[in-house]
């Protein structure tokens, strides 16, 4: 059984409220345990969040998506203590090899998704030496095929948008990156990545 919970950047929470709002503390009944999943979207790393995560000792799945906070690598020290994690998804974050390798104490983990990050093959290889059973996904499963075009295409990072971001050449206003679905635009690629 999975009891999912979601937390977005629209909520201003301290550690206690964080735990209460997610409903993610482990619950037990007479017959079987409840495993828990936590979905965090766009919420930066903070001391309150890390304190709260330390308390979620029976967390089975953690999804932490769409943040541009370099402290995510330091947060891996806390996540490495959640020894019952089966799945960890750190998508579109600045996670790097040094953060990934902190997870070597998660002996039972089955899958780590780290696409849209700064993780390299070296970091993946180093972690696989310690945890050979873990599947580590670094390729974006939703990336558009490149084909013959030299300009790469990316999934739009805007929440709930399913469009693609393409490079648009505009001689009048200047070149930019834009999504044809939601209309969002960025002058530089690094601004939406």
Number of strands: 10
- The tally of helices reads 5
Rounded average pLDDT = 77
- Strand order, main sheet: write it out: 1-2-3-4-5-6
Taking all Cα atoms into account, the compactness measure Rg is 18 Å
Low-confidence stretches: 1-17, 23-34
List the secondary-structure elements in sequence, H or E: EHEHEHEHEHEEEEE
Gap from first CA to last CA: 34 Å
Structural class: alpha/beta
Percent helix:
10-25%
Shape: elongated
Main sheet record: 6 strands, parallel
Strand content: 15-25%
Question: Which key features would you list for this structure?
Answer:
alpha/beta; 193 residues; 6-stranded parallel beta sheet; disordered N terminus
Map the helices and strands.
Layout (H helix, E strand, L loop, with lengths): L1 E7 L6 H8 L12 E7 L5 H9 L3 E7 L6 H8 L7 E5 L5 H4 L10 E3 L7 H10 L4 E3 L16 E2 L8 E5 L7 E4 L5 E2 L7
Parallel strand pairs: 1-2, 2-3, 3-4, 4-5, 5-6
Antiparallel strand pairs: 7-8, 8-9, 9-10
Helix pairs in contact: 1-2
């Amino acid at each position: 059984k999975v009891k999912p919970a979601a937390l977005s950047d629209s909520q201003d929470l301290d550690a206690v409220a964080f735990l209460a709002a997610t409903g993610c503390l482990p619950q037990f009944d007479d017959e079987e345990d409840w495993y828990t999943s936590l979905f965090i979207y766009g919420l930066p790393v903070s001391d309150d969040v890390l304190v709260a995560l330390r308390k979620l000792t029976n967390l089975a799945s953690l999804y932490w998506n769409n943040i541009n906070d370099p402290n995510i690598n330091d947060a891996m020290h806390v996540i490495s203590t959640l020894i019952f994690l089966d799945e960890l998804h750190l998508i579109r974050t600045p996670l790097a090899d040094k953060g990934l390798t902190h997870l070597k104490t998660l002996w039972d983990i089955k899958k780590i998704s780290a696409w849209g990050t700064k993780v390299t093959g070296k970091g993946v290889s180093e972690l696989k030496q310690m945890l050979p059973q873990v599947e580590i996904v670094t390729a974006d499963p939703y990336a558009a095929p490149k084909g013959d075009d030299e300009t790469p295409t990316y999934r739009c990072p805007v929440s709930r948008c399913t469009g693609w971001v393409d490079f648009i050449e505009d001689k009048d206003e200047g070149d930019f990156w834009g999504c044809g679905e939601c209309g969002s635009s960025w002058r530089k690629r690094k601004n939406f990545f």
